[in-house]
Design a protein that fits this description.
The protein has 425 residues and is mostly helical. It is built from 20 helices and no strands. 68% of the residues lie in helices and 0% in strands.
């Protein structure tokens, strides 16, 4: 009886999921696939191609938070944008590696590059879901992959990525590939995949915590070596000064936090709960509290993972999935599109819930997390309404994600279990 009721809830959740996807599809059509974020990457890649890469952080490194800042018309970055036909553009705030990777696309016209990037993103989703289907259900890939592909494609954060031309779908492919290699005990390919997404996004550095908990020293060594090799390569290609400028000036300026309902992390939830508004600047004391709580959650999650059997790569892989989900909830900046990296964990957990293999806390946390991440306009409505209670509810998504992760890590038995859609953790 309980399983049937849970399935009814999941079906209703699926309807909201589809409605949100239709809403996002409408926005995609209205925007004519503008891909604003990709334009920023493309401009940075064009500057590197034209040997002007030392100027991609000129304004972003001036000490103010560059995340929502428009480029000054007098900067070389804005000048390059105008040459490409873009009048208004935001600043480039990613590490140099992303711009380096997109240099081949910079040889195309902007419109052609946007079409190519959209096609590549579709290929990335296809490849990521194929690998994930093989991990979750290796014996039934043919029937399991199509619905998984549709679900990931219609996932609201995925559609947000396509709308903005974000890089997160590429990161999803690299993440899933790393998880697959890790589940197959292929140490160095897994380390390389995890290192690349870390150098691009930084937040995936959270993978170090479960590896420490597992005492997987071989994987940790490989990961550190891969990171070092990538950083040396970045310095060789761009010069040491550009990477130092990013680490010493751009990263610290982005650590103050952005108080916005679109920034779905624990720190923002605390800021809005304390200030009863999403229109005020971040308070330093609350920002510090958020960082301390985030650190405490990460440490506790690592402690809960310490008893994972060393030889049980299936269970260890699922724990890594949960940590990537946790990283989305705790990242200093967590726009909705960044939750694409939670898709592998959600794909497995929804299957687990459908089979009735979750307790009440896990099931409620899962439903709340998915519902609030999908959103379907509730977040914007809460912001327009301004009611503090609605604002608090709109920011419960990351809190639900944290509760879900900790509940799963706390409540699962320590014995080895198979990684499939019927039995997880």
């Amino acid at each position: 009886m309980r399983t049937r009721l849970e399935r009814v809830y999941l079906v209703l959740l699926g309807l909201v999921f589809v409605a949100s996807a239709l809403q996002a599809g409408h926005l995609l059509v209205q925007s004519h696939w503008l891909q604003r974020d990709f334009r920023v990457y493309f401009i940075a890649a064009s500057m590197i191609r034209n040997h002007e890469g030392s100027h991609i952080y000129d304004q972003a490194a001036d000490g103010t938070d560059p995340q929502l800042t428009w480029a000054d018309p007098n900067t070389l970055f804005a000048e390059q944008a105008r040459k490409l036909g873009v009048d208004d553009v935001r600043l480039y705030v990613y590490p140099p590696l992303l711009a380096d990777m997109l240099v081949p696309l910079a040889s195309l016209r902007l419109a052609s590059a946007e079409h190519a990037w959209l096609l590549l993103n579709a290929i990335f989703i296809l490849a990521a879901t194929l690998i994930l289907a093989r991990m979750i259900s290796p014996n039934r890939v043919r029937w399991f992959w199509p619905p998984l592909f549709v679900a990931v494609l219609l996932f609201r954060p995925t559609l947000d990525c396509l709308l903005a031309g974000q890089v997160t779908i590429l990161l999803l492919l690299l993440q899933v590939a790393g998880l697959y290699f890790y589940s197959e005990s292929r140490t160095f390919p897994a380390a390389l995949m995890f290192a690349v997404i870390t150098v691009i996004k930084i937040t995936p550095l959270i993978v170090v915590v479960p590896l420490l908990a597992f005492r997987d020293w071989k994987q940790l060594r490989a990961y550190v070596l891969a990171l070092a090799a990538l950083l040396i390569g970045i310095c060789f290609v761009n010069g040491e000064g550009l990477l130092r400028q990013y680490v010493e000036h751009v990263v610290p300026s982005m650590s103050t936090g952005v108080v916005s309902l679109e920034n779905r992390n624990l720190g923002t939830a605390l800021q809005i709960a304390w200030q009863r508004s999403d229109q005020l600047p971040a308070l330093r004391s609350i920002n510090l509290l958020g960082k301390l709580l985030s650190l405490a959650v990460i440490c506790y999650a690592g402690w809960l993972s310490r008893c994972t059997p060393k030889s049980d790569y299936a269970r260890k892989t699922t724990v890594l999935m949960l940590f990537f989900l946790l990283g989305c909830c705790l990242a200093p900046v967590a726009w909705r599109h960044s939750y694409v990296l939670a898709a592998p964990a959600l794909a497995v957990l929804v299957g687990k819930a459908w089979k009735g293999r979750m307790n009440a806390v896990e099931f409620i946390s899962l439903c709340c997390f998915v519902l609030l991440v999908v959103g379907f306009g509730f977040t914007q409505w809460a912001s327009d309404n301004g009611n503090p209670l609605f604002l608090d509810v709109a920011m419960l998504g990351p809190v639900a994600g944290i509760a879900l992760t900790l509940a799963l890590l706390y409540g699962r038995p320590r014995s080895s279990l198979t990684l499939d859609e019927e039995s997880l953790l």
